[in-house]
UniProtKB/TrEMBL annotation:
Cross-referenced InterPro entries: GTPase_ArgK, P-loop_NTPase
Gene3D superfamilies associated with the record: 1.10.287.130, 1.20.5.170, P-loop containing nucleotide triphosphate hydrolases
Pfam families (alphabetical): MeaB (PF03308)
Species of origin: Tessaracoccus lubricantis
Gene that encodes it: meaB
Protein name, as recorded: Methylmalonyl Co-A mutase-associated GTPase MeaB
Family under the similarity heading: Belongs to the SIMIBI class G3E GTPase family. ArgK/MeaB subfamily.
Length: 339
């Protein structure tokens, strides 16, 4: 494969070349120091073209039909509303097996066939912070390529939902009606993240159960937020199979964005996300440096052995590791002044 310059990549992205977009995302996903430098240069070049898309996070309990929903909604947005839709599937499961990525692509077959769609799984190598970084930077690449709707789908395992919430404008939670207690297993913290809630599979014999679930969730949202002046997430029903309710769900997403823009909260939310991301990056870089530095690693191995021998306390051991880190800080790539 021919090596491509950052300038060529940036130009190809702007022109909407799928090959260039794919290469650029592979670059921003890489952890190699040389690739990280190129990725930073690329992101700086395309920065003026980013920030205009609908950034929507989609999560939900297992079995809620997230991928099927994304497929149906994406097709509708392209065919009926002339959007260009990108999907980033966040899956912090095994990078070796690919987790549910293959299943997701199978359930998005209709969307994958659309020229105005781009679907990309986010590999994690078992590290959720890596997923969040790769997903956030991939989102910028896709926005620069002209995709005006970016859907970030998470498998729904708690931490991934929080990570995705920190990079989108609207967080859409999908729930499915169950037999018995509709609220069983839904954590309050996840409900508090939601900007819009949709009960899926509201068709056939399940339609009435979906309506009951929607009513119960609406009551739950009132109990969570007693302040009548504070916005509550609307609870809607929809069917990815029949298409019923999908327009209403997207209208709720666009209404939420409109409210954010009118209040001036959209820019404030994105700036807050940038600040959080700044410190996440600092923490991740420091941890990676601690893990990969031969000098620090040698000291850490000795400390761990002495802790196992009970000849050293964790407090004393941590101080030794940090001293070694401080003594060798000039050797880390990020500590050098840019040329």
């Amino acid at each position: 494969m021919r090596r491509m310059s950052v300038e060529d990549l940036a130009q190809g992205i702007v022109e909407g070349s799928r090959g260039h977009i794919a290469r650029a995302i592979t670059l921003v996903e890489s952890l190699k120091p040389a690739h990280r430098e190129q990725a930073h240069e690329l992101l700086q070049r395309i920065a003026p073209l980013t920030g205009n898309a609908f950034r929507v996070g989609i999560s939900g309990v297992p079995g809620a039909g997230k991928s099927t929903f994304v497929n149906a909604m994406g097709v509708k947005l392209i065919d009926e509303r002339a959007h260009r839709v990108a999907v980033l599937a966040v899956d912090p499961s095994s990078s070796r097996t690919g987790g549910s990525i293959l299943g997701d692509r199978t359930r998005m077959a209709d969307l994958a066939q659309r020229d105005a769609a781009f679907i990309r799984p986010s590999p994690s190598a078992g590290h959720l912070g890596g997923v969040a970084r790769a997903t956030r930077e991939s989102m910028l690449v896709l926005e620069a390529a002209g995709y005006d709707v970016v859907l970030v789908e998470t498998v729904g395992v708690g931490q991934s939902e929080v990570a995705v919430h920190g990079m989108v404008d609207t967080f859409l939670m999908l729930q499915v009606a169950r037999t018995g207690d509709q609220l069983q297993g839904i954590k309050r913290g996840i409900l508090e993240l939601a900007d819009v809630i949709a009960i899926t599979k509201a068709d056939g014999d399940n339609e009435q159960a979906a309506r009951v679930a929607a009513r119960e969730l609406t009551i739950a949202m009132k109990l969570i937020t007693s302040d009548n002046e504070k916005r509550r997430a609307p609870v809607l029903t929809c069917s990815s199979y029949t298409g019923a309710g999908l327009d209403e769900v997207w209208d709720a997403v666009t209404e939420h964005r409109r409210e954010l823009e009118e209040e001036g909260s959209l820019q404030a939310r994105r700036l807050a996300q940038q600040r959080d991301w700044l410190w996440n990056m600092v923490r991740d870089e420091l941890m990676e440096s601690l893990r990969t530095s031969p000098e620090v690693r040698a000291v850490a191995d000795g400390v761990e052995q002495r802790i196992e021998d009970e000849s050293l306390s964790a407090l004393e051991g941590s101080a030794e590791i940090l001293r070694s880190f401080a003594e060798n800080i000039a050797s880390f790539p990020w500590s050098r002044s840019p040329s």
